[in-house]
Amino acid sequence: MRYRWRGVIEEYRAYLPVTEKTPVITLLEGNTPLIEARNLAEYISLPLRLFLKYEGANPTGSFKDRGMTVAISKALEEGAKAVICASTGNTSASAAAYGAKAKLPVIVIIPEGAIALGKLAQALLHNAKVIAIEGNFDSALRIVVEISQRYPVTLVNSLNPYRIEGQKTAAFEISDVLGDAPTFHAIPVGNAGNITAYWKGYREYYNLGINKKLPKMLGFQAAGAAPIVEGHPIENPQTIATAIRIGNPASWRYAVKARDESGGLIEKVTDEEILEAYKLISSLEGIFCEPASAACVAGVMKKHKEGYFKGYEGETIVCTLTGHGLKDPQLAVNVAPTSFVTAPPDVQKVVKLIGL
Ligand SMILES: *Cc1c(COP(=O)(O)O)cnc(C)c1O
Description:
14% strand; binds pyridoxal-5'-phosphate
């Protein structure tokens, strides 16, 4: 074998809180594509180089795997008997998969009726114990935090610092490909763990002298679930982007720190803007991402219209596409710009329908 990616713990071991004693539980996550989106940049007349970090290419289809490999490995090292998480879907899918690999029981608490079917399917097939509560993500998170404090189960939400440690490796990968940090990094914000993780990763590479610059962090929340933008928790968060339907983010103050220290911003985009970006990414770039992922591209489009990127021509911007579009194919079919037509099995009739 000439070359084999070994997963984020082995590839970035020097920067992670692991020792030789840590049992490494990996599905070879990371090493996701950083794709230059020339068609999209041209379509919106963005005079910057636009790159999409496609985290849907991780083993369970979202960036959560980067954090989960570290959180589950450390839980095993520390003798955990079970792990628990609250989830809008992808955390449970990832915890269930890595828990299966580690032979650790996994308990997931999800908001009933508010997660994409693909994510539920993953958690169930990986044999997690799934409890759907009649409430939203924020109440699910309160419950798992309390349970993890009172019972011998380890919390693997992004309140667990090992999650943030693993997720920061995405910033390392981007820097390793580009040769430095980008000028801007745009990212969707839900529970705010990921913006926290990226900022930590960029700061570490900068402090070590590996990168010469720091990016401005641009976070985007959905308009109906934008507590950081509004400045107060949202009781009843609403958005089509279920992965970021969160009213009281656990890493709120770290997200604000990332915004302020980097000279960036955290703003909101509407569901219409999210869906427009979702369709453009798939139709112009051939990349199928989640609606939540598209929030950051929607945000970049909005800020560009406002003239925010004036003076940065030729510089680099990276958008993190956090999860895979196949998690929720029904939504894609519902909003797709085209539908299909049916025809009898007859060449002439099919040719006519094609318009040849
Ligand atoms: C978890 C998740 C988010 C939000 O990330 P946070 O760290 O909670 O801010 C965004 N998109 C997708 C697809 C996710 O799974």
